[in-house]
Design a protein that fits this description.
Pfam families: ThiF. The protein is α/β, with parallel strands linked by helices and 236 residues long. It has helices spanning 5-11, 13-20, 33-42, 76-87, 102-111, 124-136, 168-179, 218-234; strands at 23-27, 47-51, 92-96, 116-119, 141-144, 157-160, 187-190, 200-202, 210-212.
Length: 236
């Protein structure tokens, strides 16, 4: 019995073959990206590249797939890579244990003939860079907006970036991309739910200016939405 029997029953053999022949890049393996990667793997995508430079921290345990007591301090790419290969030992997997920004993003995007890119980066500048160059190279991309501060999963949705609203990250992203001549043309996962002021703590860090409270299930919801975009597009 094939481990993809249920998937084939739903999609049919031709679409399953499309997934087996597909090549997907996931950048960012936090609360959103790791779940997106796993769902894409479990759907039967045959070639996956995962990229992230982070290690598991104690504060990740409330929401991130890789985060366990036993994995604290370990590389997220290595943990997720082992997990994906344990799901599909025949998976062609590439691990990129680097912070993807500037020229590294461009090099990565050109390194393989990717059929789809998942942007699960939570830092604005490299996020803009990845989206900009993906679109310039003619690559399909889905981008996750902020899951932090959200608590109602029924409000999560997918729309063209131009139709996203009431999301601070989406607003900043649209502003930056507009300066680069990009105002629409790729899907984003977002939620218009209001963020309570008590859920945000201002603090200066290397890559962020604030910390937003996050509930366990919202980043996985965003990751599953992103995976659904990739999978449904790949089997068209």
């Amino acid at each position: 019995m094939s481990w993809l029997e249920r998937t084939e029953l739903l999609l049919g053999p031709e679409k399953l073959e499309k997934l087996k022949n597909a090549n997907v890049l996931i950048v960012g393996l936090g609360g959103v990206g790791a779940y997106a990667a796993e769902m894409i793997c479990r759907a039967g995508v045959g070639k996956i590249t995962i990229a992230d430079s982070d290690v598991v921290e104690v504060s990740n345990r409330n929401r991130q797939l890789a985060a366990l007591v036993s994995t604290t301090g370990q590389s997220k790419t290595k943990i997720l890579g082992n997990r994906l290969l344990d799901i599909n030992p025949e998976l062609q997997l590439n691990l990129v244990n680097e912070f993807i920004r500037d020229e590294k993003a461009l090099q990565l995007l050109k390194s393989e003939p990717f059929d789809y890119v998942v942007d699960a980066i939570d830092t604005l500048a490299p996020k803009v860079f990845l989206i900009h160059h993906s679109l310039n190279l003619g690559l399909k991309i889905v981008s996750s907006m902020g899951a932090g501060g959200k608590i109602n999963p029924s409000l999560a949705q997918v729309a063209d970036v131009s139709k996203s609203y009431n999301c601070k990250l989406a607003k900043m992203l649209r502003k930056r991309l507009s300066k680069l001549g990009i105002k629409k043309g790729f899907p984003v996962v977002f939620s218009p739910e209001e963020i309570a002021t008590h859920a945000v703590r201002i603090e200066e860090g290397q890559n962020k200016k604030s910390t937003v409270g996050t509930i366990s299930y919202m980043p996985p919801v965003f990751g599953c939405f992103a995976a659904s975009v990739v999978i449904t597009e790949l089997v068209k």
